[in-house]
# Entry
Amino acid sequence: MKLHIKNGRVIDPINAIDGVQDVFIDSGKVLAVGVAPIGFVAQDVIDATGLIVVPGLVDLCARLREPGYEYKATLESELHASVRGGVTSLVCPPDTDPVLDESGLVEMLRQRAKGHHLARVYPLGALTLGLHGKELTEMSALTGAGCVGFSQAEQIITDTNVLLRALQYAKTFNYTVWLRPQDPFIGVGGVAHSGPFASRMGLSGIPVMAETIALHTIFELQRTTGTRIHLCRLSSAAGVDLVRQAKREGLPVTCDVGVHHLHLTDADIGFFDANARLSPPLRSQRDRDALRQGVVDGTIDAICSDHTPVDDDEKLLPFAEASPGATGLELLLSLVVKWADEAQLDLATALAKITCAAADVAGLSGGKLTVGSQADICIFDPSDEWLVEGRALASQGKHSPFLNYRLPAVVHTTIVAGRIVFSRVS
Amino acid sequence: MHNPQLNKHGELQHLLTTEGLPKAVIHHILDTAASFVNIGNREVKKVPLMRGKSVFNLFFENSTRTRTTFEIASKRLSADVINLNIAASSTSKGESLLDTIDNLAAMHADMFVVRHAQSGAPYLIARHLQETGQHHVHVVNAGDGRHAHPTQGLLDMYTIRHYKKDFSQLRVAIVGDILHSRVARSDIHALTTLGVPEVRAIGPHTLLPSGLEQMGVRVFTDMNEGLKDVDVIITLRLQNERMSGALLPSAQEFFKSYGLTPERLALANLDAIVMHPGPMNRGVEIDSAVADGPQAVILPQVTFGIAVRMAVMSILAGN
# Structure
C-alpha cells in the first residue's frame, strides 16, 4: 500500500523536522519525507492541510486489562481507544490475572493483540512470580516471548534482598527493570497526598517520603548492581531532585510521569471526586510544578497516559474505597498539547516525550519518521478541540478527572505499519 | 467549585461539614436550636414541624449514641423515623451504597442521616441525589470517617456560646487524637468561622495530622503549655484500638502526658469549661475528678445536641 500524506506540518522530534512537508509510505515503511521518490504513485492520498503529522505515539503505561479483567476492559476496546488517541505502540504492565509471569501467557497476549491489527503491544513481564516479590520469573524466556522489560506493576517487593537478587539477575542479561518507587510500609492504606488537603478531608495520606525512601534504596542497589532501571510515574518534587542527582552521578536510570500529574494537584480532588483517585496520588502544586520542570530539563524522559480502565462498580464509591486510576489513552495527546501550550513549550520538544524519547526508554523502534522506519503515524488537528465525555470514549474505562473538560488537539488519522487503523472523517 | 451543601439560593440543602458554612448560617442554626432546648422539659415533648416527613437513619458504621440522638430529635419534630443499621461495609453486603440510596429514595425518604466509616461518603450520596434529580431529599452527615461530624461541631458551638456568650475573645484547646477525629475537624472549622482568635490542638506527633497549622490551628505537643490560659477544653475520645501499637505505647502513658487531670485543668482559666463528645474513657483522656467536676459541661452537651439536631433537620426540611 502506497500512501501519500500531503501538506501537513510534519513534526519528527528525533530528526529535528518541523515544517510543512509531504510523507510517502510504502510497504509499511516510511519511504521519504519531503520530495516524492521518482516513480511514486500513491494508492491513497491524505490531505493533511492544517494538520500536524507526528510519529505514532508511544505510551509507556497502558493497562489493557486482559487477561482476567475483561469486565473492566478488553483488548479490543482498549486497542481501539489507543488508535483513536493516536497511540500506535504501548507498553502494558504485568498486573493482569493471571499475572504475566509465564512466557506462554505473553505469547498469547501478543498474538491476540496482533490479531486486532491496531496498536502494537509490548508487555512487561513480571519481575517476580505472581508479583509476590519472592521468586524470580524466567526472564530470559519471557524476553523471548516479547517482553521489553520487567516490572512489579503496583506491587512492591518488601524484601530488599529479593529486589537486590532480581536486579543482579536482570543485569546479567542487560534487561531493564521498571519500578514504581514506593516504600512498602510508609503510606500503606493511604489514598491521597499527605498534606493539608488530605488532613482537612480526613483522608489517610501517602507522604512524599514513601517515594524518596524507595528511590534512595533503588539507587543504592543500582550502585552495586549497575542494572538499568526505568522509574515509573514519579510524583514529587523531592523525587525529581533525587532522579536529577542520580542521572548526574551517571546511574543508568530513566523515568516517566503520568500525564495527569502534569496538570492536577491534590486540590483537584475537590469534594471527594473519586475520578481524581490515582496511584501515585496527585500531590501539591509545588510537586506538580517540579514535575513539569523535570520534563522540560530532561530529568523526566517520557510522559505516559497511565491508562487504567476502572468500571462504575469500582469507581462510584466513597473516595477511599474507589479503585485508583483513570482512562488515559484517548487523552494523552490532548493533555500533552495542553501542557505544552500552558508551559509555552515548543510542540516538538513536548511531543518527543510521547514519541522518540518514550520509544528510547522501552528500546522500541517506533516514535520516529526516519526513512526506512516503520510507518506508524498520528495526524491531528491542533486547532480543533473536543469535550471529554464518558460515552464519547472508545475505552471501556469511562472515568477521568478531565470529564467535561474541553481539550485541544483532535486525532484525525492513525496509521500503523502503513495501514490506516483509525480515521475520524471516514 | 460548587459547594454541594448549599442550594442555588445559598440555603442549606444538606449538612455535610462545618467547613465553608457561612457564619450567618451557623448562628441561624444555633438560634433555632435555642428555641428547641426547652421542648425537652415540656409535658408534650413534640413540635409538628416535620409531621409527615420520613427520616432514614442510615448507619453504615455502628453507633448507638449518635443514632439515638437523631432518632429523638426526629421524633420531637414529629417525623417518622426509620433506623437502618447497615454496619457491614457496603461492598461485602453485595448491594452498592448508591443502590441502597436509590431503593430508599424510592420509598419516598425526605431525609437521610448518614454515618459512614469512609470520609466523603455523604458527599457521594448528595451528588448522586442531585444527579438523579432528587432535590427534595436532604442529607445530614452524622459522621464520615475522619472527615466531619458537623452536628457534633455545631452542638459544641452551641455549648460554648451558651457558657461563654462571645466567641471573639476565646482560647479553645482540643486535646488528644486529632489525626483520626472528625469531631476535631468540625470543631476547628466552626471555631475559626465564628471568629475564635486562638484554636489550639494538643497531642503527640503521632496523633497530629500533617498540615494542621494550615487549618488555622496552633499546635502544641506539651499539654501543660497548651492549656495555659484557655477558656474551653475539648477532650477527644481515644479509640480502644489506637491505645497501643505504633501510634501510642499504652493508654497509661497517654494519660500521663495528655490526660486531663485537676492539676492540668488548673493551668487553664478559672472559668474554663471542659467538653467531651462522648463516650468518655475515664482515666485515659480524662480524670474522673474532672469529668464529674464543676467545670465539666459534658452532660449539657448531650441535651443541647438534641436541640441542635432538631434545628438542623427542621431548617433542611424547610429549604
Chain B touches chain A at residues 1, 3-4, 19, 89-91, 96-98, 116, 118-121, 123-124, 127-128, 144-148, 182, 185, 209-212, 214-215 (CB under 8 Å). The mean pLDDT of chain B is 94. The first strand of chain B starts at residue 54 and ends at 59.
